[in-house]
Amino acid sequence: MIIAALAGGVGGAKLAQGLARLLPPGNLTIIVNTADDFEHLGLRICPDLDTVCYTLAGISSRQTGWGRANESWNTITALGQLGGPAWFRIGDRDLATHLERTRRLHRGEPLSQVVREFSDAWGIEHLILPMTDSPVATIVRTNEGDLAFQEYFVHRECRPRVHGFEFLGIDAALPAPGVVEALTSADAIIICPSNPWVSIAPILAVPFIRSLVAGGKAVAVSPIVGGRALRGPAAKMYSEMGMKPSALAVATQYQDLVGGFVMDHGDVELTEAIRELGMQTLVCSTVMHSLRDRRQLAGDVLDFLQAGWK
Amino acid sequence: MIIAALAGGVGGAKLAQGLARLLPPGNLTIIVNTADDFEHLGLRICPDLDTVCYTLAGISSRQTGWGRANESWNTITALGQLGGPAWFRIGDRDLATHLERTRRLHRGEPLSQVVREFSDAWGIEHLILPMTDSPVATIVRTNEGDLAFQEYFVHRECRPRVHGFEFLGIDAALPAPGVVEALTSADAIIICPSNPWVSIAPILAVPFIRSLVAGGKAVAVSPIVGGRALRGPAAKMYSEMGMKPSALAVATQYQDLVGGFVMDHGDVELTEAIRELGMQTLVCSTVMHSLRDRRQLAGDVLDFLQAGWK
Known about the structure:
The structure is a homodimer. The first copy, chain A, is an alpha/beta fold. The first copy, chain A, has helices at 10-22, 47-57, 74-81, 92-106, 111-121, 149-155, 179-185, 196-205, 209-213, 234-240, 247-253, 271-275, 291-306; strands at 3-7, 28-32, 38-40, 43-45, 127-130, 137-142, 145-148, 162-168, 188-191, 218-221, 224-225, 228-229, 260-264, 280-284. Chain A contains 13 helices and 14 strands. Chain A starts with a strand and ends with a helix. The interface between A and B is medium-sized, with 30 and 30 residues.
């Protein structure tokens, strides 16, 4: 089965890693959100892409989910001692990624090419694509004004109340080379358990992508379990946007897009309501701690797809 | 006694440190070469300034003379693994200096202000000034063509044969704020034992500086001992420029500039020839390993100046 997966950061990366353990390299393409990329210290930083790459390469931090394993923090510590902006914690090894990516982008390479070259260097066999090679920037509309995503997410620790999102540059963005082909040729599309508002929505907002995903072969895995986000501000965002955070809210958001919905045992009582949205459901264990959990969930989702979502 | 010192990298930094141990903060200004500064990985790197600052702050590497003590190399190693340019070895802590300096320069701060702020952060009490706030770049003319200085010095390890030097941008450069004042108000000017061709010559080539140094109150300390450079390519450069490398060659180069010349015991047989150039001489131990050596040489030079170079 040929799969295209849409992923944001940590949650998406975990499922992508599970899928990569089960599918041969030619059968899996991971399309990653780049709307939370930003410029910092003169560097182009792509948090979701790096999380997916580090995770698939097996060099990500097990403690944090983001950044690299066995990391040291000497540069950012020294930068803080000089009075520089140290709120965005960049590890020493991770910093090399940003330096070298920025150098290559400045010399004119598209981001998708840089990702492919880095994937090769890290021994990643599956194809990882940025959603677009064009710069797109998530703006979070809050009670404290419009905030650049990382300003909201890292610097303000998601404290401001959200009332909307904007993806600057999205209308002028084109899917990165390979994205349309991957979505078209896939037997199924998996929307990973990433934040629907700021990880999946920007991917879907890139011109052409939404209609390709809505072609009847997509399933989504809920990032909300028992009314809580497994990670990050998704549940808080649902509340502030006027919705009760739940797997049902996620399913409702994906209503016109997916024919199948994967949810945790803890949310089994929502099955009927979600089926009423016109979706087949799979109830399984969606919380991924170990690599075994990731492979298990990936296998359950692939079985669900293979069985025709019955 | 109020002193202004001209310095390049390691040798100059050592004597500057010795002087800083003997002179109160208000009585010493160190004017540092910036012609071997360069852009690398999108960063503005100022090797001589950093060596002088790290040395005076007591955070420089004792092993190498440049870079920081207790350094780690995780970023540059990871960069090399990505296929990036890892020939210029930047340590993790050192990298913070370049990142934060570049950030401040890009936001419009002059280099001299950045150096002052970094000096404060590192607890340096003596005044360190770049020779200029304008970009100047040493080009080394060699049998393999014109090479940017760090390309010659680090990447090619000084192997090409030299036949000349050019300091790009020097005519449009102005002394950094404080430089003219420091040279004018100093009781004496010390040319540190730095490379005359590529460390001291560019400082002297900044408009106005040469004439201020030539005012009759300057002494030079030879970086050549027993026909060899204590460090770096100075001796090789003398040979390739058609001069026998020696303390005499250094003195000849500074002939119109200095009234006093400080040379090592090993070169005592050159004393008469150097005196014939119209200089007073001081023969002492000029090789600096320990901090004690540095203070000793600084004290000998200050005594020489105080005694009126007799």
